[in-house]
Amino acid sequence: MLKAKILFVGPCESGKTVLANFLTESSDITEYNPTQGVRILEFENAHVTSNNKGTGCEFELWDCGGDPKFESCWPALMKDSHGVVIVFNADTPSHLKEIEMWYSCFVQQQLLQDTQCLLIAHHKPGSGGDRGSLSLPSPLNKLKLVHSDLEEDPEEIRLEFIKYLKSIINSVSESRDREEMSIIT
What we know:
This protein has 185 residues and is an alpha/beta fold. The protein has four helices and six strands, in the order βαββαβαββα. The longest helix is centred in the C-terminal third of the chain and has 31 residues.
């Protein structure tokens, strides 16, 4: 069975924990409590299999606290990760600047491909968020960007997340296949 480790990172109060719980079908959180360090959610998704072989897949979603005081822990969190989801509050202008730092630390410094990264512009309930196009600076404008509004259209983000998980599992599977072939030859 293939296993993949996905990091949920981004600024404080961007909605990472609420999204993580929703996408992994974990418990609901009704009041804001900042994540201290990291929270690991293990789950399987029936819609995601390994290269159409029907092999099940397990995921670890690491919901990482956004407070810079945990920066010394980041290298340990990043170890052996297969993908990074950067969540930001689309209605908070300072978050647009902050996500460049998250991208630099968690994607570029790990030498991950842009396809292993997903940007989620999260709209909090009652924000009436404008879903217009966000002007993202390079290299963020090359990343897949999806909007999330759990009040208006929760299934849209679920479907986009499943597509993302499938691409991560394909990447993990191809990497494993290459590794096996290198041992054989």
